[in-house]
Amino acid sequence: MVRVNILADALKQIVNAEKKGKRQVMLRPASKVLIRFLRLMQKHGYIGEFEMIDDHRSNKIVVELLGRINKCGVISPRFDVTLPNIEKWTNNVLPSRQFGFIVLSTTFGILDHEEARRRHTGGKVVGFFY
Predict the structure, then answer these.
(1) In the chain, pLDDT over 90 holds for what percent of residues?
(2) What is the rounded CA–CA span in Å between residue 123 and residue 10?
(3) Cα 68 to Cα 103: distance, rounded to the nearest angstrom
(4) How would residue 44 be classed by pLDDT, with cut points 50, 70 and 90?
(5) Predicted pLDDT of residue 82
(6) Is cis: bond before 29, omega within 30 of 0?
(7) Looking at the DSSP assignment, which residues form a beta bridge with residue 106?
(8) What is the pLDDT of residues 70-114, one digit of tens each?
(9) N-term to C-term CA, the chain
(10) Phi and psi at residue 43, in whole multiples of 5°?
């Protein structure tokens, strides 16, 4: 069977391991988008350290879980979001204004919605976590 969306599979594995109470989870295969998404989650304190393991195929990532993730997922298709519409997307996807992030793919790279607003740019919606 062919994997269609690597990011969606990885985020679903993280949520399932988090619900089960695991301390770490192994994700494979790895991709550049997945690594940048995990860096964003790590920057905001939702996951701990993660380590790339080179297996001479498509690599593996071992992620330390902190128990802070309630939900994370992919928004597919990757809709275009302009700067004025970021607020509408946060209201529709996130449970509250105080926490959670929408991840956007912009010309500046993969950013959360707050950083995209600071840099005054829009982009395509990749996913969310809270």
Answers:
(1) 92
(2) 22
(3) 17
(4) very high
(5) 96
(6) yes
(7) 109
(8) 999 999 999 999 999 999 999 999 998 888 999 999 999 999 999
(9) 30
(10) -60, -35
Are the beta carbons of 29 and 9 closer than 8 angstroms?
no
Helix, strand, or coil (residue 85)? helix
Tokens of 21: 């109470």
pLDDT at site 98: 85
List the structure tokens of 69: 């993730």
Do residues 22 and 88 make contact, with C-beta atoms less than 8 angstroms apart? no
CB atoms within 10 A of CB 118: 10
Helix (H) or strand (E) holding 116: helix 113-118
As a whole number of angstroms, the distance between CA 82 and CA 92 comes to 15
Q: Which secondary structure element, helix H or strand E, spans residue 112, and what is its range? A: strand 109-112
Q: What is the pTM of this model?
A: 0.93
